[in-house]
Amino acid sequence: MNLKSFTYPEKEKLKSRKLIKKVFEKGKTIKSYPVLIRYIELDDENNKVGVSVSKRNFKKAVDRIRIKRQLREAYRLNKEDLTNSGSKFAIMILFIGKKEIPSKKLNNKVKMLLKEIR
After folding, report:
1. For 10-52, what is each residue's pLDDT tens digit?
2. Contact at 8 Å (CB) between 93 and 53?
3. d(CA 61, CA 5)
4. Nearest of 70, 75, 9, 20 to residue 42 by alpha carbon
């Protein structure tokens, strides 16, 4: 495990509207409250990951951005579980809770769900 594996480069970010739409329409879902992951398998050479937090549950942008950072960090630290599987995925990580939770707890939830994908 080298330090390069702990990065979250631009090529791993899910930005394509078409791909995001495809993930929501045809993707599989796994959930461990307060995190929900939707994903589809890709033919790409990289995993593509996006995060989302509901504006309905968190009115202040500061709160939404903080949770997004926590989710990205949790993915960054645990993506090794996903890259070892051999398959590549387009993943949307959604925070569906109504209140913030500590980073350590969120990290454990994301880790568990990423292991479940492969």
Report:
1. 999 999 999 999 999 999 999 999 999 999 999 888 899 999 9
2. no
3. 30
4. 20
Cβ atoms 36, 94 nearer than 8 A? yes
- Which H, E and C letters describe 52-64, residue by residue? EECCCCCCCHHHH
State whether residue 32 is helix, strand or coil: strand
**DSSP 8-state secondary structure symbol assigned to residue 85:** T
- Run of H or E residues at 81: helix 61-83
Distance CA 94, CA 1 (A): 27
Is the Cα torsion angle 24, 28, 30, 31 positive or negative in sign? positive
Which position has the token pair 């989710």? 71
Q: How confident is the model at residue 87 (pLDDT cuts 50, 70, 90)?
A: confident
Q: Closest Cα partner for 93 from 39, 41, 26, 33?
A: 39
Domains and CATH numbers, the chain: 9-117 (3.30.230.10)
Phi, psi of 9 (to 5 degrees): -70, 165
